[in-house]
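Researcher: Let's do a round of design. I'm pasting the structure tokens now; please hold your answer until I've finished.
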């Protein structure tokens, strides 16, 4: 008797939607509770990027507050500190 291999059906859109919801909820739970590790935060950022989620840093928004605390880097200052003078571009 020949063994017949059964190929499972492809996941449905409903399955993908549920998985997407569960992953998103897990990230939110970890971040809100304060238990998110650096790896969790990186994975959550990657999850947003993979799903084409972007934000607008309007005045007073959390994204705006984050943008305001990230130091601005002056490329010319970095060049002068590394090499003693500004390199020609």
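Researcher: That's everything. Go ahead.
Model: Designed sequence:
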């Amino acid at each position: 008797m020949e063994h017949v291999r059964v190929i499972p059906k492809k996941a449905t859109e409903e399955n993908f939607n549920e998985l997407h919801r569960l992953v998103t909820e897990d990230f939110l739970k970890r971040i809100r509770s304060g238990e998110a590790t650096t790896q969790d935060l990186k994975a959550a950022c990657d999850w947003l990027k993979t799903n084409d989620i972007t934000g607008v840093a309007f005045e007073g928004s959390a994204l705006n507050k984050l943008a305001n605390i990230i130091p601005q880097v002056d490329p010319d200052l970095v060049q002068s500190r590394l090499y003693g003078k500004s390199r020609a571009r």
